[in-house]
Amino acid sequence: MAGNSSYQKKTMAAKQHLLIISIALLISFCQCDPDTLQDFCIAELKNQPFINGFPCKSPKDVTSDDFFFAGLAQEKDTDNILGSNLTAGNVLSFPGLNTLSMSMNRVDFAPGGINPPHSHPRAAELVFVMRGCLLVGFVATDGKFFSKTLKAGEVFVIPKGLIHFQYNVGKKTATAITSFNSQLPGVVIAANTLFGSTPEIPTGVLTKAFRVDDKLINEIKSKFGN
Ligand code: GLV
Ligand code: MN
Question: Reading across the β-sheet that carries 125-131, which strands appear in turn?
């Protein structure tokens, strides 16, 4: 009898281990947005409560328009300090993307314009040059810089979470279409994040990090509204 109960305990412990290992494996395999549980789930952006993602519009109210987005069709004005303009096609502007793990942007560039160094915490990015000539680059976690000058029709991939940029090195305007394996990749623009946060990062932290004096840090902060 006693032998039987110790055998049962061992079997139970083995099952628990198996369950924990399976959950760990499941988590490590899931590197992008979670998989879909139905064909579609048009985001009901105004609905409460907040959940991980957005609740779905009732399928009986879904129409073809929910799967259509014309927001990337128009070229945007690039007459600004960066000489670029980004139009986002993520779940917030295109609710039909909800739960589909994908999104797409358009970036227009004046000659010399840049999409400044930034990263996407939730997605890798494909950069497709639609017209013009762009220098595209990212820095890996070991500090190595990878880049290419792309012309129309060419593609560069930016691994998830790494700092990257695009720079129009051509004489004419340029346009890139970028796509992501997330419905909402998120964006961290390096300069704005460090110098324009609210509340601001203490100047002493930035003087040490950048090895410069207060005056320079405060001057840069003032350009980002701090
Ligand atoms: C370009 O880098 C983009 O994030 O759309
Ligand atoms: Mn990007």
Answer: 84-89, 103-109, 174-180, 125-131, 155-158
Closest atom, ligand 1, to C-alpha of 107 = 5
CA of 23 to the centre of ligand 1 (A): 33
Residues 48-68: what's their mean pLDDT? Answer: 90
Between 160 and 19, whose confidence is greater? 160
Task: Count, in order, helices (H) and strands (E) of the chain.
Answer: 4, 10
Q: Average model confidence (pLDDT) for the chain?
A: 89
CA distance 17 to 10: 11
196 alpha carbon – ligand 1 mean position (Å): 20
Phi first, then psi: what are they for 47, rounded to 5°? -75, 145
Q: What is the pTM of this model?
A: 0.83
Contact 219, 207 (CB under 8 A): no
- Domains within the chain, CATH numbers bracketed: 59-186 (2.60.120.10), 196-222 (no CATH)
